[in-house]
Amino acid sequence: MKYLTTIVLISLLITACGTNDSIVNEDPVPIADSLSTSTLNDELALPILETYEDSIRMIVYQAEGSCNVNSPKEFFKNEIWTYCKVEENIECAFIEKRNDNVLITEEFILKNNMLVYALEVERTEYETDTSWWSCEYIVRGSTVEKFSSMGHGETELDEWEPESILTQWQSHKDHYNMVKNKR
């Protein structure tokens, strides 16, 4: 019985899967004939940006890599400002301030003088603990296209609106222009 079952299973597998008789052996096309090497290298070197968010994230990556702790700083009241021009059309401002036990960090990235990205981080220090809240914004024109919040903070309030980051940026524009013009 085992022998018969094995023969039936093998027959079914051959019928279901077919045979290799229909496969024609052809020589593979050499890479040099199908794609030029420079085209292949160009395709591998450049990321494919599919969405607006992808393109903004690429700008953020570039800006955060170009601006560092050694960039010149300006002091206004209780704020420390860092301005950086990444390219002709990409600029960023980092603002840090402390209110008692809360350290607030804000990051604004502009492309063609328009806000495209913002990040807020609040770190509250207690005697035995530290709590964090952050919110990241992708901005297009006068609209927040996407935001992502982590931790406990203002985004949990019923009256909070994501577009409040636009008002916040507007409140910083005078200082931003002062810092920018000093460069």
Provide a descriptive summary of the structure in words:
The structure is a single chain. The protein has 183 residues and is an alpha+beta fold. The protein has one domain. The chain has five helices and seven strands. The protein has helices at residues 2-17, 31-34, 37-45, 52-66, 164-181, and strands spanning 73-76, 79-87, 90-99, 102-111, 114-125, 130-140, 143-151. The N and C termini lie far apart (90 Å). Residues 1-41 have low confidence and may be disordered.
Average of the residue pLDDT scores: 78
Shape: globular
Number of domains: 1
> What count of helical segments does DSSP give?
5
Query: Could you describe the largest sheet, including whether it forms a barrel?
Result: 7 strands, antiparallel
The number of E-state strands comes to 7
Q: How much of the polypeptide forms β-strand, as a percent range?
A: 35-45%
Report the end-to-end length measured between terminal Cα atoms: 90 Å
The Cα radius of gyration reads 28 Å
* Alpha-beta content class: alpha+beta
Biggest β-sheet: strands ordered side by side in the sheet: 1-2-3-4-5-6-7
Which descriptors would you attach to this protein?
183 residues, alpha+beta, seven-stranded antiparallel sheet, 7 strands, globular, disordered N terminus
Topology:
Layout: H1 2-17, H2 31-34, H3 37-45, H4 52-66, E1 73-76, E2 79-87, E3 90-99, E4 102-111, E5 114-125, E6 130-140, E7 143-151, H5 164-181
Antiparallel strand pairs: 1-2, 2-3, 3-4, 4-5, 5-6, 6-7
